[in-house]
Amino acid sequence: MGARKIQIGQLWKKNETGDTYLVTRVYTEALSTIAVLRKSGAEEQDLVRVKVERTGDGQGLPGFVPAVEDD
Question: What is the pTM of this model?
Answer without folding.
Answer: 0.84
